[in-house]
Design brief:
The chain has 286 residues and is an alpha/beta fold. The chain contains eight helices and seven strands.
Length: 286
């Protein structure tokens, strides 16, 4: 645990009172564990601490397990390609360099926790554990042996491979050259990346808006061209012959009215017969 946990002691026989942070000491030996408070600390500050009394076995292994369990952990756990894409977008959003550690271990090591705390807000560190859910991630970066460590480019594709066996001291020296000098909200390089990214997103949005406007204009133009709907003239033309057909019906009715002369002939005949009957006094037989 060298380099990951700092160990210090306070001599109660000096006579001076211990710091207020430690609190009262009722008996010796007393072991206290001090770690930063994630919820109350703002920015890159670790001033506010949590103090816990160690009340377990006074042996190396249980003490080491207790210290590892209480260590702050800012590692991004990656499970699958979707989680990897979120990791890359988060680093790009804050202008942070991105490092990935591929490991066989089922839990995060104390050295990796310590590195995540040391380079918090200056370097984003992700952990990729071996398994079926991460096969695509291993193939993407051509990782065949573990443990392995790589640093990603701004787009998440270009990467540098750490060609030595990862250890706390080796990774610490490598990360010093890759991480930001200050937290991202104070670092000029990170702020320039964030501004450039915002400019790119604004350009993309303007391009999308122009394309949407073009599509809307294209959609509007065919609506104005309603020439096929105005082609109602053939219906009117069809109506005209119907009217013409009605006229001959009226003409056919006229000859029916010409039956009057027949009646007149009959009446004339009847009149003639009656006149003859009057003259002769009897009807003519045919």
């Amino acid at each position: 645990m060298k380099g990951t946990v700092k160990v210090a002691y306070w001599d109660t026989e000096q006579g001076s009172n211990p710091p207020r942070l430690i609190g009262q000491i009722k008996g010796t030996p007393t072991i206290k564990f001090i770690y930063p408070n994630k919820k109350k600390n703002k920015g890159n500050s670790n001033k506010k601490k949590i103090v816990v009394d160690y009340q377990q076995a006074r042996e190396f292994k249980p003490m080491m397990a207790f210290a590892e369990a209480k260590m702050p952990n800012f590692i991004e756990k990656i499970k699958g390609e979707k989680a990897l894409d979120k990791f890359i977008s988060k680093g790009d959003k804050y202008g942070l360099p991105k490092a990935l550690l591929f490991t066989k271990l089922g839990k995060t090591s104390s050295s990796l926790k310590a590195l995540s705390t040391e380079y918090r807000r200056r370097l984003l560190i992700g952990e990729v554990r071996g398994g079926k859910h991460n096969k695509a991630v291993f193939k993407r970066y051509n990782i065949k042996e573990m443990p392995a460590c790589i640093v990603l480019g701004e787009d998440g594709e270009e990467h540098q491979v750490f060609d030595k066996k990862p250890s706390f001291n080796r990774l610490n020296m490598w990360f010093k050259n890759l991480a930001l000098q200050k937290p991202y909200f104070k670092d000029e390089v990170a702020q320039a990346r964030i501004a450039a990214r915002k400019g790119d997103t604004e350009e993309e949005t303007t391009e999308e808006e122009t394309t949407e406007e073009e599509t809307t204009e294209e959609e509007k133009t065919p609506k104005k061209k309603e020439t096929p709907k105005k082609k109602k003239t053939p219906k009117k033309k069809k109506e005209t012959p119907k009217k013409k057909k009605e006229t001959p019906k009226k003409k056919k009715e006229t000859p029916k009215k010409k039956k009057t002369p027949k009646k007149k002939k009959e009446t004339r005949k009847k009149k003639e017969t009656t006149e003859k009957e009057k003259e002769t006094g009897f009807k003519e037989e045919l």
